[in-house]
Amino acid sequence: MDLLIVFISASVVNNFVLSYFLGICPFIGVSNKTSSALSMGMATTFVMVLTAIVSWLLYFLILVPYGLEFLQIPSFILVIAALVQFVEMVIKKVSQPLYRALGIFLPLITTNCAILGLALLLSMREYTFMQSVIFGLGAGTGFTLALFIMSGIREELELTDVPKAFRGAPITLITAGLLALAFMGFAGMI
Amino acid sequence: MKIVMHMIATLTIIGVIAGGVLSEVNDWASPLITANQKAETERAIFLVNPQGKSYEAVTNAGFEIYKVFDENKNPSGYSLAYEGNGFQGKIRMMIGLKSDLNEITSIEILEQVETPGLGTKVTEAPFKDQFNGLQTAPQVNWVKGKSPSQPNEIQTITGATISSKSVVAIINSGLEKARKLQKEGKL
Amino acid sequence: MSKQKSMWYEFYKGIWEINPTFKQILGTCPTLAVTVSVMNGIAMALATTFVLVFSSLFISIVRKLIPNQVRIAAYIVIIATFVTVADLVMKAKFPELSKALGPFVPLIVVNCIILGRAEAFASKNSPLRSFLDALGNGAGFLLALIVMGGIREIIGSKTFLGYQVMPNGFEPWLVMILPAGAFITFGLLMGFSNLYIERKKKIEMQQKISQYRKSANELKEAEA
């Protein structure tokens, strides 16, 4: 029950993109095609779950017991960078098709603030190990959902006559605003 | 090989310097941060128990509860910090209770992430003041759209019913825990 | 660099010409997240500027000592150190603000403005120039956050820096302080600034055309 609440909260009620504003750069950058939005979302979800596991272990088993909480930011960011590199290498070795699908998105993920935000939030809220994993999964699902919906809308927007000054980022932001309003309907589920 | 050594050496030096600087800053900041947190808790404890002058934490309670004493060192009540789910996330609050746990002195919302302008009204006076002197036997109840008729009832906020109900639910579950402690003689 | 630009230029270019928020579209996350009120915006911008200035300065000083292959890793460690300093100082001295900004102070570390300036400017320029460049970009960021925060606070809670500025009869638009309001305000601001630039270009173009016509006419008259 508790885990379900964490999942729903992270994926829809407090959606990372639409209510925490984490991961706006890829949200605007990679949301023009549904296919690439899905791949990006899946790659991010995968890294998010791994980040949740690794940063939980790092924070609660190493930093807290030794009173090194002040090293949280540098250590998290280095771990995430290393993790992304590692995932990229493993995927390349294990599955070529998967690498072709996700490969180009992986380097982009290092600079995605949603990943670091996830690690910071789970240590701030003192989640248990299981909660952290579910939190990572929920946040990734929410990110994928927002990216996928947005890309669907943008494919339609391509065909409309948007004023020239508002094409690209401005109209995407305004659409995201409307989407954020729609997502407010999920509030109250927890 | 020389380049690799150079790379490792540079990163090590930077890492060591960074770690040293941070531990110095942390030594300076962490007592201040702890003091801030303590001051904040203390402020909330006395805010919900206005006649309190000193307090002590109840140990082994399993949650945060403080016994509050007045100026003559007589126990005047309890302040308990309790949290639960609101409309959009956790609501954490401090509840002030008389010694018999049958009357609320007042409440204070410490943390919340409710909808700005609607749910956040639970932190404002018109709603919060309803709890001043509210009876808690057998539990706190809410009514919607009409004025409360019983001494243990409060009215929910229009447009923020769920947030209002959540506050009541958090108070009730906190009360239940406190009563259980009292029965066991731990308070 | 082909020609040496003036020191003053290194500073003021960040405010409008390459404004990090509106022109480079960097640091969008904090721009949207913390601008519920002007005060939060200012605090966030000052914290970011602190990190930006010190990491730029520091990176510029040690730029020749860092091997090229590990420069990004080194920059990130330097930036993360200053972010932690800023975070600890805020927690110790301004607990209220630190609470209001939540995880967005530690998230300065992934704010692309900082790594962007480090890589694009500080790693190639003298400490003084890097310092001015960082200060200018910080000022540009501050300006953007004040504009965003101002619009959202005035319309969303009818106050500016906590003082009431709208008449009592004005019903605040709640949507402005919700996440949706942030997206819409930013989208509109960006759109209108594009529109303004477009107009300006058009007018300049028309002036050039009319000037050209004028001189052409003068030539004709002279020939006649």
What does this protein structure show overall?
- The complex is a heterotrimer of chains A (190), B (187) and C (224).
- Chain A has 190 residues and is an all-alpha fold.
- Chain A has 9 helices and no strands.
- The longest helix of chain A has 30 residues, at 34-63.
- By secondary structure, chain B is of the alpha+beta class.
- The mean pLDDT of chain B is 86.
- Chain C is mostly helical and 224 residues long.
- Chain C is built from 8 helices and 2 strands, in the order H-H-H-H-H-H-H-E-E-H.
- In chain C, strands 1-2 form a two-stranded antiparallel ribbon.
- In chain C, helix 4 crosses helix 5 (95-101) and helix 4 (71-93) crosses helix 6.
- Chain C starts with 6 loop residues before the first helix and ends with a helix.
- The mean pLDDT of chain C is 88.
- Classes of the chains: A mainly alpha (190), B alpha+beta (187), C mainly alpha (224).
- Chain B binds chain C through residues 3, 6-7, 10-11, 14-15, 18, 21-22, 25-26, 28-30, 32-33, 36-37, 40, 115-118, and chain C through 36, 65-67, 69-70, 73-74, 77-78, 80-81, 84-85, 88-89, 91-93, 95, 156-157, 172, 174, 177-178.
Largest sheet of chain C, described in full? 2 strands, antiparallel
Radius of gyration of chain B: 23 Å
Q: Identify the overall geometry of chain C.
A: flat
Widest β-sheet, arrangement of strands of chain B: 1-2-3-4-5
| Structural class by secondary-structure content of chain B | alpha+beta
Number of strands of chain C: 2
Strand content bin of chain B: 15-25%
pLDDT average of chain B, as an integer?
Answer: 86
> How many distinct helices of chain B?
3
Question: How many angstroms separate the termini of chain C?
Answer: 50 Å
Helix content of chain B: 25-40%
